[in-house]
Amino acid sequence: MASAAFAVTSPAASAVAARSKVLGGGKNQGRTDCRVGITRKNFGRVMMALAVDVSRFEGVPMAPPDPILGVSEAFKADKNDLKLNLGVGAYRTEELQPYVLNVVKKAENLMLEKGENKEYLPIEGLAAFNKATADLLLGADNPVIKQGLVATLQSLSGTGSLRLAAAFIQRYFPEAKVLISSPTWGNHKNIFNDARVPWSEYRYYDPKTVGLDFEGMIADIEAAPEGSFVLLHGCAHNPTGIDPTPEQWEKIADVIQEKKHMPFFDVAYQGFASGSLDEDAFSVRLFVKRGMEVFVAQSYSKNLGLYAERIGAINVVCSAPEVADRVKSQLKRLARPMYSNPPIHGARIVANIVGDPTMFGEWKQEMEQMAGRIKNVRQKLYDSLSAKDKSGKDWSFILRQIGMFSYTGLNKAQSDNMTDKWHIYMTKDGRISLAGLSLAKCDYLADAIIDSFHNVN
């Protein structure tokens, strides 16, 4: 608390004038929580005390809006009937409504029937969930699981899993750097910045081809200091939708192994990208099969639609069971002061679905349907662009991309035009979420993209 006091040795009228002057100008103008009080009268003199309450948070600036969540806020404020939200990566039906999987509803009903309690989970989470998630990621018959080489902790979806691993890196590999693709998911850099882990970028996107800059990627990984952590998107790269081919994944693994780097996979779309849990886990399983130690962050936000449940895991594949035990013990040690223990509801949903053959089959069918809908709108968008654009531009890169997102190649000014003129909300790097697109809106979106690409510099 800061305060200032002064005395006015003049009649009361002068004191009021002085008071007005103080409140109306000077360095305290506009400050909140100012109060003026006449404390006592003494022989015609008026003693005035000005107490200025200064917040302890005076030095805290306003944070900029989140670049992705801010898109949704702007979309909600728009009253135009044609508006379209292609910013946030959340699945929508053909009617552009949120979708709760039927198998999730069944799993929740089963939980209610069992009358399960809400007691605290252990720090590492629900044991049945941890087993299910490692089995899904690596394959239940994978030797590393049978040999006890995997340390798995349930965590707070993909973001929390990445953050926990970042804290582990900062503590036990303080000299190491993390390599992040350029571009990458908007929160990756925030996570490592807040964990005080240094990072640099490796080339990934080639604007000339709207494809993968594979040579640049390999060169940058080769040039990185030995023992770096290389952050890789397991499938459906966000934001580009561009994935390496199986042959390219082999070469990436070669270089990482030669340089003694640590591969660190972010797996947010297993089963949601292609519709196949096994196909989307190819990259991770390839590295594990080579005998490499690997970090993997998982999320069930997309493939089970459990966005708000914050359900995921961090897995560390180690070289020996005793190493896995030590790693797990330290991850638990880091989690305890960070969030103590994870939530149980989403973990039980996953465990129930994976543990029941009937529900597991139903889940796979629903994933195929969701992935299929996105593939359909991707194809329709390509067809619309190709039919409407008479310039001869090749839009086939849209079909080569996979998963929820498409990198359109539009720059910031062109993306602004999409919003300002066409009421289509998207991130300013040209990324659109096809999960927020319907077949009925593809022609409209194609018109907007063609206008923005050709008519805006």
Automatic annotation (TrEMBL):
Keywords: Aminotransferase, Pyridoxal phosphate, Transferase
CDD domains recorded: AAT_like
GO molecular function: L-aspartate:2-oxoglutarate aminotransferase activity
EC number: 2.6.1.1
InterPro entries: Aminotransferase_I/II_large (IPR004839), Asp_trans (IPR000796), NHTrfase_class1_PyrdxlP-BS (IPR004838), PyrdxlP-dep_Trfase (IPR015424), PyrdxlP-dep_Trfase_major (IPR015421), PyrdxlP-dep_Trfase_small (IPR015422)
Matches recorded under Pfam families: Aminotran_1_2
Obligatory cofactor(s): pyridoxal 5'-phosphate
Keyword Nucleotide-binding: no
The Aminotransferase class I/classII large domain, residue ranges: 83-449
Enzyme class: transferase
UniProt catalytic activity: L-aspartate + 2-oxoglutarate = oxaloacetate + L-glutamate
Further facts: In eukaryotes there are cytoplasmic, mitochondrial and chloroplastic isozymes.
Protein family: Belongs to the class-I pyridoxal-phosphate-dependent aminotransferase family.
PANTHER family given in the database record: ASPARTATE AMINOTRANSFERASE, ASPARTATE AMINOTRANSFERASE, CYTOPLASMIC
Subunit relationships: Homodimer.
Protein name in the entry: Aspartate aminotransferase
Species of provenance: Urochloa decumbens
